[in-house]
Amino acid sequence: VQVEESGGGSVQAGGSLKLTCSVFGDTYRNNYYTWFRQAPGKEREGVAALGGGGTYYADSVKGRFTISQDSSGNTVYLQMNNLDPQDSAVYYCAARLRRGNPLDPAKYTYFGRGTQVTVSS
Question: In three state form, how does the secondary structure of the chain look?
């Protein structure tokens, strides 16, 4: 399984970005897809997860970020609105939750290399 992120960039506070996660290979066992982020000096944190018939969001992004997927199920999006400088980070897409909390990065098998999001004030 290969995971590739795209769509990162620089935006001013209050702006929007849409990230795309493309997943290739043996995808039929991918039960969850999740977006994580990691800012310099901070731990990787779960942002939004999709799977098990539902979606899950970190409290810090609820009402601003939306995770979705296309009809094939192998492309996952993260629409980010009303961005804040504290949202600046490298954003990673992950696939295949082993078990447990969908927003826990330690529970995932496959990660992409990440895409940088920078929000200026």
Answer: CEEEEECCEEEECCCCEEEEEEEECCCCCCCEEEEEEECCCCCCEEEEEEECCEEEECCCCCCCEEEEECCCCCEEEEEECCCCHHHCEEEEEEEEECCCCCCCHHHEEEECCCEEEEEEC
Let me know how long the chain is: 121
Q: Are 9 and 16 spatial neighbours (Cβ–Cβ below 8 Å)?
A: no
**pLDDT tens digits, residue range 33-73?**
999 999 999 999 999 999 999 999 999 999 999 999 999 88
Q: pLDDT value at position 105?
A: 92
**88, 58 Cβ separation under 8 angstroms:** no
